[in-house]
Amino acid sequence: MPYELYYWDGIQGRGEFIRLALEDAGAKYIDKCRSSTGTQVMMEFLKGSHGHDHMPFAPPFLKDGELVVSHVANILFYLGPKLGLVPEDEKSRLIANGLQLTITDFVSEAHDTHHPISTGDYYEDQKTEAKARSTAFIKDRIPKFLGYFERMLSTSPSDEGFILGNGLTYVDLSLFQVMEGLHYAFPKAMKASEGSYPRLAALREKVSKRPNIAAYLKSGRRLPFSESGIFRHYPELDLGD
Fold this sequence. Notes:
Layout: E1 3-6, H1 15-25, E2 29-31, H2 38-47, E3 61-64, E4 67-70, H3 72-83, H4 90-112, H5 127-155, H6 170-185, H7 187-192, H8 198-208, H9 211-218
Helix pairs in contact: 1-3, 1-6, 1-9, 3-4, 4-5, 4-6, 6-8
């Protein structure tokens, strides 16, 4: 049976980290909320009215037969061994999970650049605070996180420039998505710092050329970035504006 992915239709969002893993592995999956009844089914799960023993807090979540797994890092921890996207030994799996959880923190901070006060209010209602948050994010947080991942890549035993072991993992795919998102949201800031993270830049390029990923990026399944997702481009929040 194909995997069933539940996430809001119309945006990449956090669901994209799961899609990239499924796409790279060539796994069969259904993006349920892109069907006419998928969102209704998802809401039944979230409300606990679907008759299942697990009620996720929020999407994304993945259904594999009768098993429901929620949270991006947890889903990838589950899928990694099944899709061949993590080394088999326990130590490597735990390291990969720790790296993915760090990405989760980073993605959350990226989201909060445009919604620093409340996710329930519009960006236009918190523009002053968003400018201050974005300035600090560009100055302090991007270098902190990307610097860490750059160092991890520099110490990796991989001959191919991957972050863990000798092959691509779901962490590499997630780092690709983070780099894509940052270049969309903060193109000036990322261009200004492009020489600081050569290994991450090389990883981004390498992942984009993987056959399944390249085909996915050209397909209709890959939704574009937009001002409704995690990574949003507001020119006034970018460096130099």
